[in-house]
Amino acid sequence: MTIRLTPIFLVTAVGLGLAGCGKKQPEVLPPPPAQAISEADSSGLAEPGVIPGSHADFVQQMAGQNVIYFDTDRFNIDNVDASALQSQAQWLARYPNKRATIEGHADERGTREYNLALGERRANAAKNYLVSIGVDASRISVISYGKERPVALGSDEASWARNRRAATVTID
């Protein structure tokens, strides 16, 4: 007498045999990543995952002061701008190998050529201020985008005010 195994019986038998071979949970689990605190995290200077000296660190430390704003057709540095640029200079002093680009922007009014020139004057005004308080000029480059990269879309004073700016971007 020959026993003939059907394919369904074989698949079922193998499946049940493998089901008993599942992974077992370890008795002691390692701590979750949130409990691993680096020196920067414990000092309160950086959020977890933010690398000190990175652009993300710069933006976080500046808390909005990486951008300065201008009045219509102006490129002068006022007291609020000076305070923001001083914070930027302090960060750059902590990381002497970091370079930065200052991007000059304008609102949508005016010709393309006029706004490119105005954006360049705004970026250079910010650069010149940083250089005047001790940042090496070779570490800072400028570029003008004129009205080509607005952050606020709209044809109203609130949108225009947000677009008249010079933004500092660190280079990683």
Verbal overview:
This protein is of the alpha+beta class and about 170 residues long. It has one domain: 60s Ribosomal Protein L30, Chain: A (2-Layer Sandwich), CATH 3.30.1330.60. The chain contains 6 helices and 4 strands, in the order H-H-H-E-H-E-H-E-H-E. Strands 1-4-2-3 form a 4-stranded mixed sheet. Helix 5 links the parallel strand 2 and strand 3. It is elongated, with a radius of gyration of 29 Å. About 5% of the residues have low confidence.
As a percent range, the share of strand residues is: 5-15%
Radius of gyration: 29 Å
In CATH, the architecture is 2-Layer Sandwich
Give the mean pLDDT: 85
Structural class: alpha+beta
Q: Brief description of this entry?
A:
The chain is of the alpha+beta class.
